[in-house]
Structure to design on (236 residues):
C-alpha cells in the first residue's frame, strides 16, 4: 500500500513540478555550464546503495574538497552528560578485525563516548554556489528525488539516506536499527525543532524511533509536520 501511494505521489509531483525543474535546470546551467542534476551514492534501507538525484548546489570538485574540510564539521562530539544506551553482551564476546580482536564491551564503551564524524554538517560551506544557497534554503534542490521515489530507492517519508562515508561509521546493532526503515525525503529528524543543533546520538535515536514505528499513519503525521514547518518555520 505504501509503495502504491508513493508511486502515485511521484507521478503527480513530476507533472506538477516539471516546469519548475526546467527553470531551475536552466539557471544552474547558465551559471556554471555544468549538468544541473547531481548524483551521488547513498545508503538506504537494509544498507542498499543507490544513486540519489539532486539539483547541483556545489562547485565542481566539491566531493574532493571534503577531506580537507573535516575540521569544519559541526558534528564532532556528543555532550559530556550523554549516557549511552545499554547493550547486552558477555564479557567473553569478541569482535574481530583483520589483524586484531577487541572485547565487545570495551569497543561499545569507546564508541559511545564519541560519534565524531558519523554525520557531516559544515556551516557556511564555501563549496556551495549562490544559486545553491537559495535551492538549499528552500529545499528545492531535493525535487529530483521524486525520481528516486518512482524507482523505489526512496519514499516520501523515511530516514535520510546517508553517504557511504557516514553509513560506514554506524555499525553497532543499536546504530544499525535506522537502516531497517525506508530512506525518505522528509522524516522525523527533519521536522524536529532542534534539527539544526541536534547532536548525532539524538539523530540516531530519532531515526531508530521512526524505524520502529514506521507506518502509513505515522508517515501522514510527519507529512503534516513537514508542511507546517515549511509554511510557518520552526515548530514551537
Amino acid at each position: 500500500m505504501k509503495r502504491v501511494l508513493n508511486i502515485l505521489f511521484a507521478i503527480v509531483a513530476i507533472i506538477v513540478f516539471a516546469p519548475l525543474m526546467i527553470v531551475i535546470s536552466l539557471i544552474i546551467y547558465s551559471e556554471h555550464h555544468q549538468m544541473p542534476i547531481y548524483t551521488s551514492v547513498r545508503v538506504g534501507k537494509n544498507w542498499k546503495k543507490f544513486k540519489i538525484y539532486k539539483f547541483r548546489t556545489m562547485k565542481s570538485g566539491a566531493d574532493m574538497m571534503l577531506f580537507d574540510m573535516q575540521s569544519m564539521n559541526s558534528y564532532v562530539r556528543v555532550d559530556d552528560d550523554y549516557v549511552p544506551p545499554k547493550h547486552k553482551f558477555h564479557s567473553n564476546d569478541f569482535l574481530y578485525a583483520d589483524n586484531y580482536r577487541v572485547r565487545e564491551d570495551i569497543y561499545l564503551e569507546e564508541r559511545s563516548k564519541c560519534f565524531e564524524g558519523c554525520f557531516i554538517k559544515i556551516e557556511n560551506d564555501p563549496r556551495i554556489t549562490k544559486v545553491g544557497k537559495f535551492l538549499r534554503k528552500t529545499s528545492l534542490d531535493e525535487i529530483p528525488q521524486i525520481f528516486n521515489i518512482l524507482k523505489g530507492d526512496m519514499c516520501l517519508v523515511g530516514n535520510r539516506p546517508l553517504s557511504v562515508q557516514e553509513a560506514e561509521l554506524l555499525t553497532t546493532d543499536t546504530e544499525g536499527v535506522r537502516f531497517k526503515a525506508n530512506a525518505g525525503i522528509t522524516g522525523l529528524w527533519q521536522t524536529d525543532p532542534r534539527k539544526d543543533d541536534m547532536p548525532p546520538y539524538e539523530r540516531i535515536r530519532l531515526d531508530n524511533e521512526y524505524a520502529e514505528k514506521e507506518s502509513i499513519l505515522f508517515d501522514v503525521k510527519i507529512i503534516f509536520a513537514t508542511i507546517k514547518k515549511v509554511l510557518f518555520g520552526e515548530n514551537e
Q: What stands out?
A: The first strand starts at residue 37 and ends at 43.
